[in-house]
Amino acid sequence: MKVEKKLALFTQITMQEVEEKRLQLKKEIDEAFTGAVEEAVRTAEKQARERVRMEEYKIDRATNKEIIEAITAAKRSLVEKREMLMDALFQDVTDDLRAFIQKPEYQDWLVREIQAAQEKSQGVFAYVQVMARDACVLHEGSDGISSLTAEYTDEDFLGGFRLFSANRNIIDDQTLLYRLNEARREFIFGAGISSLEAVL
To answer: How far apart are alpha carbons 89 and 193 in whole angstroms?
Structure first.
């Protein structure tokens, strides 16, 4: 296979991977992500072509090795950039959640979520667990939840609650940390930004 075809194949494979990953991120992240990856690809292509021109007599032995190295370097750069941007994205989401739990709207949200979980579980749970700082929500909440058996924990799961059975099995985990981790897992496996919208 000629060098030009191999380089064209390298460019096609790399750009397909860049495009697939690019579509998963937010618009502002997408711009930085695309620019960085495309620059890495252009640099790899330029270096590969320059080496081929300078060492034509080694073309049969060197081309395959260089293309593989260029693809490997581009993939490594892609993965590193994706992980860095994903970490930054989820740190922003975590910060937003920590800001949210300080607002009065959080207490209303927590009451509504517990009530909805009660209806969904049809009374098969024994008690609800919330963070200690949310104890006042259950005491001051509506009649629908103020009568619940509650357990308070110092564990920092951002906010939300868990429903437990009498033998301490978790029936439903609606903590914000669990939702965030699930969104991150779905994001990694391709669900993308839409999974973040389900956190709240």
So the answer is: 10
